[in-house]
Amino acid sequence: QVQLVESGGGLVQAGGSLRLSCAATGSIFSIAVMGWYRQAPGLQRELVATITRDGSTNYADSVKGRFTISRDNAKSTVYLQMNSLKPEDTAVYYCNLKSPSGFEYWGQGTQVTVSS
C-alpha cells in the first residue's frame, strides 16, 4: 500500500521561498510519475509540476522559472522548491503518485500561504 506524507508548508512573505517534501511508502516510488498539485479556496485542483521516473519534468505556465520539482529515489521522496512566491500561490499543495498501471495516490495536503 502506498502512503504519501507531505511536509514543508507554512506562511511566507511574497518573494520568499519554501521547500515542500513528500515521502512515500511502498515499493513503486522509483517507477512512478510523481507530481504536485494545488487547490485554492473555491477553485479546482490544478497541476503544478510532474517528474517522471527518469527525471523529465513538466510545469504549469504559472510556476515556470520559479518552482523546481525533483526526486530522490533512494529516499522515496519528491520535492518542490518554490522561489519568488506570490500571493496567488496560496493554496493547499498535494503530492500525487501515478503508478505504471494507472493507479493514483494522494497525500493529505499541506497549506502554503503567501502574504503580500
Blueprint of the fold:
Elements: E1 4-7, E2 10-13, E3 18-24, E4 33-39, E5 46-51, E6 57-59, E7 67-72, E8 77-82, E9 91-98, E10 104-106, E11 110-115
Parallel strand pairs: 2-11
Antiparallel strand pairs: 1-3, 3-8, 4-5, 4-9, 5-6, 7-8, 9-10, 9-11
Low-confidence runs (pLDDT<50, min 5 residues)? none
Give a quick account of the main beta sheet: strands, pairing sense, barrel closure.
7 strands, mixed
* Overall residue-averaged pLDDT value: 96
The oligomeric state of the chains shown is single chain
Kindly state the number of beta strands: 11
Q: Beta-sheet strand percentage? A: over 45%
Shape: globular
End-to-end CA span = 40 Å
Rg, rounded, reads 13 Å
Succession of helices and strands: EEEEEEEEEEE
Number of helices: 0
Helix/strand-derived category reads: mainly beta
Q: Helix amount, in percent?
A: under 10%
Structural notes for this entry:
Helix content is 0%, strand content 52%. The chain is mainly β and 116 residues long. It is globular, with a radius of gyration of 13 Å. The model has no long low-confidence stretch (mean pLDDT 96).
Short description:
With 116 residues, this protein is mainly beta. 0% of the residues lie in helices and 52% in strands.
